[in-house]
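Tutorial handout. Part one gives the primary structure; part two gives the three-dimensional structure as tokens.
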Amino acid sequence: MVMGSIKQTTDVMVLGGGPGGYVAAIRAADLGYEVVLVEQRERCGGVCLLEGCIPSKALISAVEVMETAHAAEKMGITFEGLKVDYAKLRSFKAGVVDTLTKGIDGLLKARGVDVIHARGRLDGPRSLALEGADVAGIDFRHGILATGSRVTQLPLWKDLDVWTSREALELREVPERLLVVGGGYIGLELGLVYAGLGSHITVVELLPNLLSGADPDLVKPVRKRCQQRFDKVLLETRVAGMQRKGDVFIVDVESKAGREQLEVDQVLVAVGRTPNTEALGLERAGLNAGPRGLIAVDATMRTSVPSLFAIGDIVAGPGLAHKASREGKVAAEVIAGKPAAFDNVSIPAVVFTDPEVAWTGITESEAKAQGLDVTIGKFPLSALGRAHTLSRTDGLAKVIADKKTGLVRGVGLVGPHASELIASASLALELGAVLEDLTATIHPHPTLSEAMMEAAEVAEGLPVHLPPTKK
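Part two.
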């Protein structure tokens, strides 16, 4: 690496230090390459760590502790004087983020990855111009683009000082009345956080269902809980107008039933994310983004320009940190000449609501839409011993399998710790498991993990803890 010159040179340049970028940089360094990681922010970790997945789960965990304390009354345990110290809660969240960012810095340093905090823009297929760095740019043999995404901004609320997930996670205040625009996972997770902290929540969702990517039977317990915890859940409703009057927002919403005006103290907008590709200088490298701002790649994560790879939120597929990390490993291994490809059978999705929702592989809705001949087994947590001991029976496990071969095609879970249980389902799909593999595997009792085995038994038509399947 030539230091102190107008341009720096390296084997591998990674643009973006999020869960895709820093993992790609570490893997490339471990494979013997000289690596430069360019990150615009002062800290690595990306949106997920700095203002997304991690801080949100820290707040969710805190609210879960309070909800558990309240729910313990039915077990004969009563807490008095339960209160929230917001300064300590903010400090706890910040401490979690700080610990993890320092951990990433240490991992990169241990691998000898050169981290440059600057703004990067492609200046050719093997060249990156830098803004805000001691060097003008970087010449590289291989480049991995991992610039992530940002919150989608719509003109309707421009300059109105509404919240995005970033502001909501700062926990500046707990508004008495909070309107959440968007009934996806971000809106519901943060809505439940603020409901737990004392806000009166109204959710507005344009589509007919909450969590539109999940099967309706998985969403049903979450919707029921949201209706209990929120003041209003307005489906098939759009925001038609919004204005700020002093300290309040006046919001016009419109549905089939007509137009309604809401007065709230704050608005949280959670309507999706936009890929960060428009300012990358793609055209200078011979690349173009598609209509949705995504870069086309093959199974090796290589773009149409042989020296450039792209991963994470700027390529097709769900915008999930674990997907980006896997893609980053693939790109680094392909650069090293390894026979790697992003050929995963499933990408698990998790929603950290109450109860949690998780699914992997094909959904029941997708199976029906594709006309697949499948058998579906569902097992309610109300029939599971461990769920009763937790006093959390609002959920189910679902297994979807090919009717002829028994090959497991998908698994869905809703209930406590669904986020932890779904990994074993993903492993089953990756290994090509059939129903008998699930039913013949001994699951420890009493546990929540038994629900997946029980659902597989239902799919086989041989349930033990449910009435026999009608022929």
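Part three, for discussion. The two ends are 71 Å apart (CA to CA). The longest helix spans residues 86-110.
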